[in-house]
Design brief:
Blueprint: H1 17-22, E1 27-30, E2 37-38, H2 39-42, E3 46-49, E4 62-69, E5 72-78, E6 83-89, E7 94-98, E8 110-117, E9 122-128, E10 135-140, E11 146-151, E12 158-164, E13 169-175, E14 185-189, E15 195-199, E16 215-217, E17 222-225, E18 230-234, E19 239-246, H3 249-257, H4 263-275, E20 281-287, E21 291-299, E22 308-316, E23 322-324, E24 328-329, E25 341-347, E26 350-355, H5 361-368, H6 375-382, E27 391-395
Parallel strand pairs: 1-19, 2-24
Antiparallel strand pairs: 3-27, 4-5, 5-6, 6-7, 8-9, 9-10, 10-11, 12-13, 13-14, 14-15, 16-17, 17-18, 18-19, 20-21, 21-22, 22-23, 25-26, 26-27
Helix pairs in contact: 5-6
Length: about 400
């Protein structure tokens, strides 16, 4: 593809944990062996949102992503038959859904990612269009009305994540595994989707460890999570490692063992290492002025049976300390199973997380005993049943 500029930035896996620790420009984030702490000692602002659960507002298998704008919450909802976008207001009232699976204008075959373009006040969907293999960008207004689509240029590889870089550019992460002549970071012009610049940040054999939503935009930088547990600050002109997420020596051994393997060999290697708790997989990452947060998946035990749980590490930028949900006591709502909480988004310094339901009657009783809850919140918890959507927990 013309105009592509390939930049060999780093030989990533040659860096050990010690080298990252000694590099003053890269912040080292500890994941394991964190101290116990109360949730209320880290955060002091809380809110619970109880999303309406009438059809078609029900949550599916999982919520993959959240975007908030103009008192509206947009949720990337993975269902048994595909995926859609649910929209609620900040009180939990259901507003509309975008579920355009099918053929014809405004319809798509597969929803891969979405985001809100704050400059244009538009909802942008990155999809495989109404003909399989046709990559498109679809635009909706903030009331869910379809406006128009733009077909992207022929792209080598599979788009997995997309975000607005600034007022004029989009940036995409392309999974290049199994493709030749493929660059994994593409920067597009918003108007005509022409590729302005491209380069490589992820070695092919670690691409599967990159989160499906691989970007997060802060006030002053765009962050990208690479497949070798490195978070990069990227721009049109520069790319540099900013954070190293230290999942331990077993993770580094696993990543190095993938080098030179075929796709099938890597798939089998990941399966075995994941089941034996030798590897972990990042799911989301977020950043505020105070915290850098990484949510990750791991197997609950090393008994060779798949039993995935989600945990989160909070890195305090001021103190340099890390806090893992494994060692956080959720005194705010007496929540004893910490892995039930999964962070899905961040807006205006607030984290948005899903409290995965169902709760047992005993858990509900413990939750409503919490001195941190308002009477209205207690009653909302008590009204929950098997038909209820999971709760959205907002904190700062």
């Amino acid at each position: 593809m013309k105009h592509f500029i390939t930049i060999l930035l780093l030989m990533f896996l040659s860096f050990s944990c010690e080298k990252y620790e000694n590099n003053q420009n890269v912040t080292h984030i500890k994941v394991d062996n964190t101290k116990k702490i109360n949730f209320s000692a880290l955060f002091d602002e809380y809110e619970f949102i109880f999303p309406e659960s009438k059809y078609p507002a029900w949550f599916g298998i999982s919520i993959r992503k959240m975007e908030k704008i103009q008192e509206k919450i947009f949720l990337f909802n993975l269902t048994q038959t595909g995926s859609n976008i649910l929209c609620f207001d900040t009180k939990g009232r259901f507003l509309f859904t975008i579920d355009k699976f099918g053929q014809g204008p405004g319809y798509y075959t597969l929803l891969k990612d979405f985001f809100v373009d704050n400059h244009l006040n538009l909802l942008v969907l990155d999809v495989i269009g109404n003909q399989f293999g046709r990559s498109e960008v679809m635009y909706f207004d903030l009331d869910g009305k379809y406006l128009y689509s733009k077909r992207r240029q022929d792209i080598v590889g599979l788009t997995r994540s997309m975000i607005a870089y600034d007022d004029n550019l989009f940036v995409s992460y392309i999974d290049c595994f199994g493709f030749d002549n493929c660059n994994d970071i593409l920067i597009f012009d918003k108007q005509n989707l022409e590729v302005k610049k491209s380069y490589n940040l992820v070695d092919l054999f670690v691409a599967g460890c990159t989160p499906s939503h691989a970007f997060f935009k802060t006030n002053d930088q765009l962050l990208f999570y690479g497949g070798n547990d490195t978070i990069y600050a990227i721009s049109v002109d520069t790319q540099s490692p900013a954070y190293f997420v230290d999942f331990g020596p077993q993770q580094q051994r696993y990543l190095k063992s993938r080098q030179g393997k075929t796709q099938n060999e890597i798939t089998e290697l990941f399966r075995k290492s994941y089941l034996s708790k030798e590897s972990r997989s990042a799911a989301h990452f977020f950043s505020t002025n105070k915290f850098l947060v990484v949510s990750y998946n791991e197997n609950r035990t090393a008994d060779k049976k798949l039993d995935t749980i989600n945990e989160t590490v909070f890195y305090d930028k001021e103190t340099g300390k890390s806090y893992n949900t494994k060692n956080i006591i959720f005194d705010v709502f007496n929540f004893v199973k910490n892995d039930r909480m999964e962070i899905i988004g961040c807006s205006d310094g607030y984290f948005y997380s899903i409290l995965n339901y169902p709760f047992t009657k005993e858990q509900i009783k413990e939750i409503v005993k919490s001195p941190f809850l308002t009477d209205e919140t207690r009653q909302s918890f008590l009204k929950m049943d098997e038909e209820s959507n999971p709760v959205i927990f907002v904190f700062k």
